[in-house]
Design brief:
The complex is a heterodimer of chains A (274) and B (212). With 274 residues, chain A is an alpha/beta fold. Helices cover 28% and strands 20% of the residues of chain A. Classes of the chains: A alpha/beta (274), B alpha+beta (212).
Chain lengths: 274, 212
């Protein structure tokens, strides 16, 4: 969504207000029906930044593209087409949740986990940089780093995504530690609630965790085609990513700021899930 | 020099065993509180990029300590690389997992809960709690409780690592560092009057070295 060249970027001349009128036809009351009623996620590109995706898993279906990042010689981070799928299962589980709620979205995989723990920070950063530059509509990050040395770069990438109309959805920590990128205000951070309905989500009036989505007793895709029950913010996050994909498939013009407002207005504890 | 200071400060000789006992006691308490069949702490070995069983309570205690596996595999690996606590239930449904678990640990858990051990900005390892025959699935409140244990275990693991690196320094540097560490250990054991006298002597020695 690039802006027409004649629009002001840094200041607004007198009488130019009309030139930047926003095209969204906002209803008097934002309801779930307006926000994502009948939506399927069609046309929305969701990138799972994780351990890869097992393509063809019954819970996942087709994957439109998959790349893997790893440390090459000289510590350079290399990007290659991913032919291995998912080595540990975490990314497949996230993809399956997104698919279950947004059945027609386009899933992409960027594998940044699975090649060992050591040196995983730079790999994660490079994967995120690529995903932001690719301009995905939604990036699911069911992971975080505690390394302060990466915080500034992650912050820059999160802000870049925000202004490029890419929604970064990141798992929060339920432990008293500093970790990133979920703490940044330009991302949508997600913790867990214990309700069973996958479309139930809450806005948290006490941030930094901004939203709570279903994260307890979730049936997740498991390597080898099966499913298993699991709990954790890792799985609350793709619920929120999928809800973002639904809203964006119906309202592709929304910016991350506007999308977050829609999520706020339709949260179960705000609009009462109306 | 900071390694040398660490060596002396840790009171080096003997502290490693104490921290190991502390870690063991943390998994014993975690197992008891959760009513679990087993609980373990894994340390991430930075040199080999593997996870190592460092302390085990319940099933597998005695045999598992010291066993290793690649750092990003298994559920402990997920937790380490994503730094996200996690619960997995119905593990026994998965034939492959069941076989692998049985081969490596001797029993197949039905469910497990795991949390990363985070200290300052480092991820040091993972704590796991396995199976609670008498109770229902793990809840969010229990995950938070495990987070508290994880915090405790992370501190113990950090101390254990420091004590180990102190020992390595002593072994490698031999003479000077070992002499200082022995002195620190003796000082620690000494009667109060003797300790005071020793410190006075040490202060005098320090002044003498400065005058040089």
């Amino acid at each position: 969504m690039s802006e027409p060249a004649d629009l002001p970027a840094w200041s607004l001349p007198a009488g130019a207000g009309e030139r930047i009128s926003i095209g969204v036809d906002w209803p008097e009351q934002v309801t779930r029906d307006w926000a994502f009623g009948e939506a399927t996620g069609k046309g929305v590109r969701v990138c799972i930044l994780d351990s890869g995706i097992e393509a063809g898993h019954p819970q996942v279906g087709s994957v439109e593209g998959a790349v893997a990042f790893h440390r090459g010689q000289d510590e350079e981070i290399e990007r290659v087409d991913d032919t291995e799928g998912d080595l540990c299962g975490h990314g497949t589980a996230c993809a399956g949740i997104v698919r279950s709620l947004a059945p027609e979205c386009d899933l992409y995989s960027a594998r940044v986990l699975g090649a060992g723990f050591k040196g995983s920070g730079p790999v994660l950063l490079e994967g995120l940089r690529w995903a932001v530059e690719e301009g995905f509509d939604v990036i699911n990050m069911s992971l975080s780093t505690t390394k302060r040395q990466f915080a500034e770069l992650l912050h820059e990438l999160a802000d870049k995504a925000y202004f490029n109309n890419t929604v970064l959805v990141a798992s929060a920590h339920n432990m008293p530690v500093e970790s990133y990128p979920w703490r940044f205000s330009s991302v949508i951070s997600v913790g867990s609630h214990e309700e069973a309905d996958p479309m139930t989500f809450f806005y948290n009036p006490s941030p930094p965790v901004e939203f709570f989505a279903r994260g307890v007793g979730v049936e997740i895709a498991w390597l080898g085609g099966g499913t298993i029950l699991s709990t954790g913010n890792s799985f609350a996050t793709p619920h929120m990513s999928a809800i973002c994909a639904l809203v964006l498939s119906k309202h592709p013009e929304l910016t991350p700021f506007q999308l977050k407002s829609v999520l706020y207005l339709t949260a179960n504890n705000v609009g009462g899930g109306r | 020099m900071s390694d040398l200071r660490a060596a002396v400060a840790a009171g080096a000789l003997g502290s490693e065993e104490s921290y190991r006992e502390l870690l063991q006691s943390i998994v014993e308490v975690a197992r008891a509180i959760f009513g679990a069949r087993a609980s373990s702490v894994f340390l991430h070995d930075d040199e080999t990029d593997e996870l190592v069983f460092e302390a085990v309570a319940g099933e597998g205690a005695g045999e598992l300590v010291g066993q290793r596996f690649p750092s990003s595999t298994g559920i402990a690996g997920w937790v380490l690389v994503t730094r996200q606590p996690l619960v997995v239930d119905e593990l026994d449904k998965d034939q492959r997992f069941a076989r692998e678990a049985a081969e490596s640990t001797g029993f197949v858990p039905k469910g497990l809960m795991a949390a990363p051990l985070l200290h300052e900005d480092r991820a040091l390892g993972v704590i796991e709690v396995l199976d609670r025959p008498q109770q229902s699935a793990f809840s969010l409140a229990e995950m938070e409780l495990l987070g508290l244990f994880a915090n405790e275990a992370a501190i113990a693991l950090d101390l254990l690592q420091k004590a180990r690196s102190a020992r390595t320094v002593l072994e490698e540097e031999g003479g000077d560092a070992a002499a200082l560490a022995r002195f620190a250990a003796r000082l620690d054991e000494a009667e109060p009057e003797k300790r005071e006298a020793a410190i006075q002597l040490l202060d005098a020695l320090g002044r003498l070295l400065r005058e040089r």
